[in-house]
Every structure is written in structure tokens, then in C-alpha cells.
Amino acid sequence: MSQSIIVLNLSPVKCFHHDILFDEIIRIMQKPRNFFLFIILSLSSISPLFSFSQKEKGKRKHELYFSWGYNGEWYTRSNVYVSQPALGNNYSFVNIMGHDHKGWDDGIFNKAISIPQYNYRLGYIIDEEKGWGFEINFDHTKYIFADQNAHLTGTFNKMRVDTTIAFNAANGFYYYLNNGANFLLFNLVRRLPLYYLRNGNLKIDFLGKAGVGPVIPHVQNSFFGEQNDPHFQLGGWNLGIEGALRVTFFRYVYLEYANKLDYARYSGLQIYEGTARQAFGTYEMILSLGVNFPIGKLADIHS
Q: Which whole-number Å values give the CA distances from 249 to 28, 40, 54, 98, 197, in the listed order?
């Protein structure tokens, strides 16, 4: 993704009215990305005023952290393979599109916090100085295949088929991992400091993460009007990499923005009289609020 640098020319110009300058600043700050950048730069500029008021303190050797946040997904096209031996069916829906169901875009506090697409992280920094750690990484993602014309090919009722199906609920078709496609990863974490104040009031880190783990989907579907019994199940595996920018305020509270790539492979998904399988890639954007818990013995800091 491309990034832009915002430059405001605030040098005095006689013909530039102050109201025009104020309107221009407001226009730029209305963009969330620019607003957060402004906040970070502002905190950075005033923080030296406070850095001399406290003595530098030692750091704990280890750190435990927990965060909760929300996510949005974009999925690659994929195939859904259906096997129903008792019915003489072995077909696939080819090159279909899936989409997420954010849930948080119409409000968070008007429903249970676990209904929208949420995520949590529980991590442990083994070595504070070197930045290595381990993390349990869970994303409650949602995947919906519905409301499109789908190319059907293979064997249906023991006969060869190659046709297009109106894949929608009114026609007896839907395929939901809507109560969760549910990616669980066990990640290796490396944290790299980018900027910090000695008094701990502001710290900016980059975190790189990579891991593998199971997928735990909630499977709900209907093919040709035959519905399954909706349920959770262990449904395959996934692997992912993630890059995150973490801004920590006053040592303990942080805001983290992450971009993630995930590849998930589902198999043995229970459908009516058979199983389905599928594999797809995911791009995620995640915003989380978290807390740090420094633990272990104090380590000396040498200036």
C-alpha cells in the first residue's frame, strides 16, 4: 500500500487568510489516518518536555500482553469441492467469490462485543532486550459465499454437469462460515523498537509475527435445498504472517494496527450426506487495544 507524507506550509504569506489555513487543516484532519499521524507527531514533539521530570527506571526482563480488537478481510477467489457419495455427487463450484461480514461497521456497543469480526492476542515476550516472544493469535473472521452466479462442474446424481447455478438462498444455496472461519495461530514474535522515551510515556514498536495453527469454523450450508446441521468443528489448518505497528502510552496501554496475510485450508466440512473442502487466501487489517504486564526481575538500564 502506498503511503503519503503530509506537508503543511505554515510560513507567513500576506495574501493567505488565516480562515483558509484553518479550513485546510480541518480538511486534512478529517481523514482518520492523518488524524492519528497528527496525534503521534504531536505527542512526540511535546514529550521531551516531560522526559526530564522523571528518572529513568529499570525494565522487567519479561512481558505479558493481551489485546482485543476488530478486523476486516478480503479473500481470494477459490473453489468449493463437494463430495456426497451416497447421492452420487462429486462436484465443485469454481472460482467463486467470498466476502466478510464485519458487524462492527453498524456499531460495537449496541451488541455483544463477540458478535462482530473480533480478534484477540495473548503474548509473552521472553527476552525484553532482544524482543523475541510467543503469541496465541485468534481472528474471528467470517466468510460468506452467496448471491452470485456460480460455475458448477463435476458429477451430480451420477451424471456429468458443467453449468451455471444461481447460488442464493431463494434457490436453495448458501455456504456460510458466518459464525466464524476462525483462524487460530501459534506465532513466533519479534519486536523491534522504533522510538521511545526514557520515562516510558511513549513507545513505538514494530512487531513481526509468523505462525501456524488450526481453523475452527462454524459450518452452515445448503446445496440444492439440502441443509446441514450448523455446528463448530476442527476443519483444517492455516498459516499466516503479520506486521504490526504498536504505540504504547504510559508503559501499559497500547494501540496496535496490523496487516496480515493468511492461507487457510479447510477439509472435512460437514454438509448434508457428505463433506466439503476449500482453500483460500486472506488479507486482513486489524485495529486492537491492549495492555502490557511487565513481569520478572528488574534489569538494569545503562544510559
A: 25, 11, 16, 38, 10
Contacts of 35 (CB under 8 A, 6+ apart): 29
- CA gap 116, 48 in Å, rounded: 40
CA angle 241, 41, 61 (to 5 degrees): 55
State yes or no: pLDDT of 21 exceeds 80.
Answer: no
**Residue 17: which residues within 8 A CB-CB, separation 6 or more?**
none
Find out whether 205 and 248 touch, Cβ atoms under 8 Å.
yes
Taking 90 as the threshold, does the pLDDT of residue 210 lie above it? yes
**Residue among 211, 97, 76 at smallest CA distance from 144:** 97
Q: Which amino acid is at 121?
A: R
Q: What is the dihedral of CA 75, 256, 189, 130, to 10 degrees?
A: 150
Domains identified in the chain and CATH numbers: 17-46 (no CATH), 58-299 (2.40.160.20)
The tens digit of pLDDT for each residue in 38-48 reads 444 444 443 44
Q: For residue 55, give the 3-state DSSP assignment.
A: coil
The average pLDDT across 126-145 equals 94
Cα–Cα separations (whole angstroms), residue 128 to 58, 125, 301: 12, 6, 12
Q: What phi and psi values does residue 94 have, to the nearest 5 degrees? A: -105, 135
